[in-house]
Every structure is written in C-alpha cells, then in structure tokens.
Amino acid sequence: MDLLQFLWDYQTDPLIYLLILFLFSIAVAIVLPIPVEIGLIWNPLVPFWLKSLVLGAGKAVGSMAVFGIGLKLEPKIRSWSRFKWFKWFVTKSEAFVERYGYLALYVILSIPIMTDTVPLYIFSLLNKEGKAMSLRFFTLTNFLAGINRASLLGLLFYALGINLFS
Known about the structure:
By secondary structure, this protein is mainly alpha-helical. It has one domain (3-159). Helices cover 70% and strands 0% of the residues. It is built from 6 helices and no strands. It has helices at residues 3-10, 14-30, 48-79, 84-109, 117-125, 135-159. Helix 3 (48-79) packs across helix 5 and helix 4 (84-109) packs across helix 6 (135-159).
C-alpha cells in the first residue's frame, strides 16, 4: 500500500491521522529529506491549528534525537579538521551557529517546503560541544518554527483561495 492510499484510508479517523502526522514529522526531522507540509493538507476534519501543533510537536521530538546524534558525531567531525579547508569551514560554521544560533535556526525552519533534516544536522553538528545551543531551546525553537511554518503555509494557501483553516 502506498503512503497516499494509506493516508486516504485513515483520514476519516482524526486520532489515527494525528498520530501518523506526529510520527511523520519526527521521521522528517531525523531521516526523511522531504518537506513535512504534505501532512497538513490531508484530513479536512481535523482543525488546521491542531495539525500545526502536532506538526510542531513532532518536529520538536525529532530535533531532540538529531541534537543527541550531533553531540555524538561532533568529535568525529572535528577529527577531519586536519584538512585545512575543512578546519576553516568548521570554524566559520561554528561561529555562525554561535552568533546567530536560535534565530537563524528558527528562520530557516520556518520556510515552507524547506527540508528540515539538513539544517537540523548542521546546527547540531556545529554546536561546539553542545555549548552554543542547549537541548531545551533547540527543541523549543523547532516546535515554534514548525507552528510558524504551518501557519505560513496556511496563509499562502489562503492567499491562493484555498482555505485550510476551516
């Protein structure tokens, strides 16, 4: 059974639909390099604000996993710094994350149709030993950016004459 048929079959059950959206949002944050918004346009029976909250919650949970992965992989990334060009890249990237941190992450993750996976890993890997960004605020930033992103998409559709908010 393909994903679209699966979603179509379960769109009449709001609870199962929201569970699928939550799990899908987690998977998109961790491993799926695809936009998460596809889950918002399904199931007109579920209020858009609730779908936005579930999407944000899924992104937050997924970001906690990515944060942990980034902390574990960071020493390996640092070991590649014996190459001058790579050391330069890591140093500049860490300075960017340290300087713009949560705001930059929030803005990037608020862009509709943008993949979450790559920016999440970049920010978690270049988090300079977990000191530039804390897990709590990294997660909160992802949650709020997910809600913002859903709202922006809803407004975009509304501007095009498609009301997702009802």
